[in-house]
Amino acid sequence: MSEYVFPFEKLDVYQMSVDLSEYVLSLVEKVPANRHLRLVSQMEAAVASVAQNIAEGKGRQYKKEFIQYLHIS
After folding, report:
1. Model confidence over 14-69: pLDDT tens digits?
2. What is the pTM of this model?
């Protein structure tokens, strides 16, 4: 039995956002723990929000709403 794939997971832009997130998080891990804590926290939240907005937009009823979420991303 195959694992269920959400429709947004099939989007190239979603896959690219996941790759970006992994890359940024790998860079953030290299920042010393006592340095720039607020900046690191903001970067983690910002990069995570890209994929979240794409996923949320894909679940919207109208294409126009989806496009708006892509702009937000």
Report:
1. 999 999 999 999 998 888 877 778 888 899 999 999 999 999 999 999 999 999 99
2. 0.82
Q: Where are the beta strands (DSSP E) in 1-73?
A: none
Distance CA 39, CA 50 (A): 17
Please check whether residue 42 lies inside any domain of the structure: yes
Cβ–Cβ contacts within 10 Å for residue 67, how many? Answer: 12
Pairwise CA distance, residues 45 & 50, whole Å: 9
Q: In this structure, what token pair is assigned to residue 11?
A: 């989007």
Distances (CA, A) of 30 to 33, 36, 44: 9, 12, 13
Domain span at residue 57?
Answer: 7-72
